[in-house]
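Standup notes, protein team

Yesterday: finished cleaning the Nannocystis punicea set.
Today: von Willebrand factor type A domain-containing protein structure.
Blockers: none.

Input for von Willebrand factor type A domain-containing protein:
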Amino acid sequence: MNRLPALLLCAPLLVACGDSGRPQDTANATLTTTSGPGPTSTVGPTDGTTTDGSTTEAPTTSTSTSGAPKLDLGAQPDQGEATTGECAAQMLEPQVQSIGVDIVVVVDTSNSMQAAIAAVEASINNDFAAILGASNVDYRVIVLGDYPPGEQLDICISAPLSGTDCNPPPAVPAVTERYKHYDAITGSGAFLANILAWYTAPDPHGLAPGGYRDFLRDGTRKIILAMTDGSSASATDADGDAFDAALLALDPPHFGTPGARDYVFHTIITMSPNNPPDAPWLPADPLQGEGDSIQRVSVITGGWRFPLSQTDSFDVLFQEIAKDVVQTTPIACSFPIPAPPMGTIDPNTIEIDYQVGGVPPAKAFHQVVDLASCEADAFYIENATVILCPAACAEVQADGAAKLDVRYGCDVGFDPAG
């Protein structure tokens, strides 16, 4: 599975600027963040020693439960205290979150799927959505499956993810901002073909007149969780490759492009249990059981495969998929300009220092006018939002220990008129 590290964003401490407006000295800081399950990470020195050899009281750190990094800077000096040069740059803490994730759950509602559907209905709130919500991931769950009253079986997801307790189900799926339902029927034989066809086919309730693509958001990662017995699905690997190519060719290209997939395909299908039984089969493991074409899509996208018979372990599977989504979803390369406690910020003075691997010396990112003016080491500001240019974004998201310092208040020579 493609794994992109989380981006650590923090604000700098007070720095002094010389005649050029560039910083002469930056105090050391420690950042602790909890962006999801797993141990916290600490970046930077903590001894409070500045680059000129003097010592200061090291700032304390705090942990963010919302997913955004928090930095306790302690007491700040008055404007007139102990500054050097002509300018004293100021700082504020940016509030950041992950990029969005759309999770598409495709459910075979043929008569052989009753136990599996019941397990999904029981697990999806507590063992999936709750983990994503607690980890500050901007997520949406989109179910593709027959809604009650179904022609064979059906699936109804209850609150709090949806807007109903499903007792009884309302006539129209109770969608919310977090939950969407595309009412359609599939079995294992046309499973992959229907995922493609439904992309632009209207649903019967008028919720997605342009197909389930209406529920997908631009710029989000896509996770597909496919659940079928695979009994009549193709056993030809090449059919899985053809599906992947067709999915990437859909317009608009929500799932990525050839050579740059932006989706992962997990499969629950008829196959033997792993050892232990609640462990998924990984991409490197051989195809087995039924529906090789469907399993093939999981393998080429870095997804997991899980036996349909292990319904008692669906809660574990959902938990692990949710944790993996949290851990592999990068932080967005944009954040709003923070509101200062007093006064206003002149956006023309904002600078960003990128510390590769979280250690100095810093690589400077300079401000440009807009996206069209972007360079590899630049950012721009639009609608009071700081946005890293594409090349800079890719660089820092690929750096597991990246650190960005955001400063303002010094004349850095930026001309907003270009």
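Follow-up from PR in the comments: Confidence is low (pLDDT under 50) at residues 1-85.
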